[in-house]
Every structure is written in structure tokens, then in C-alpha cells.
Specification:
single chain; 162 residues; mainly alpha; 56% helix
Amino acid sequence: MQEALTPSHLKKAKLMFFFTRYPSSTLLKTYFLDVQFSRCITSQLIKWFSNFREFYYIQVEKFARQALLEGVVDACTLQVSRDSELFRALNMHYNKGNDFEVPGRFLEVASVTLQEFFSAVRAGKDADPSWKKPIYKIISKLDSDIPEGFKAAGCSLELLHS
């Protein structure tokens, strides 16, 4: 049992973000079985996911605003694919070595997020200080199950590829 989080735990958490953007502390405890949980460890993991979400939403908002500037009018035309610039930016952040196959579901969630940001900005909702909260609520419901392989101590990349 480890009493501190390591760089490999950070990498694992980043890869888990492809499945869940809003994990509960209970969920996190079931996927970090090699860690001796304390208030500090739990807080650190929750903070990591908060930082992951912040980066994610900043990137998506940037691309939504760019689409508006480029004259896009229909949110449904905005899709995040594996060869899109937005995907590359997100993948580089969460999967730096590109040694993990990002699930297709993440692309769907990123597309919905992009469309929601685009529609909100296009409608002028960004004038309201709390304009992002409805988007966060939508995206929080799109989390998917994390593969069992992530529960393994050490969570080798071979396991993650399955």
C-alpha cells in the first residue's frame, strides 16, 4: 500500500478521464487499490480531476469560439474526430505518449461538449457569469464505465489496451 500518489497514478487518472469527468471519491477508491486513502489523498485525486476538467472545458470553449469566428452556424456540424485539432490537443494532454487507444465514446462526449459550448456562445449566454453550469450538468451525465483493467495495481498499459 502506498501512502502517496505517484506520477504513474497521475497518468492513470488522466487516462480514466477519457471515461469519467466527474468521478466520486468512492469510485476513485475502487480504482486506486494500491493507495492508502486519507483525506489528503482523496483531496488530491479530486483536485486532479477538477484540473483535468478545467483544461478540457477551456480547450473546448476555445474551439467553439473559433468555429463561430469561422462562420459555422449549425452546432450539429461540429464533430470531434481522431484527426481533429481539438482531439489532438486533448489527447496530447491526457495521453501524452499516445500509448492508449482513446475510446470512441470520448469523441462523442467531446462532440456534445463542443456543440453545447458553441450553441451557448452563439446564443449570447456567455454574458451570464454562470452560463457554463448547464453545460457541466449535461456533460456530467455522459460519464461511462471505466474498464476493469484500471483497477489493477500498477495498471500496466497492456491491460489498458484491451
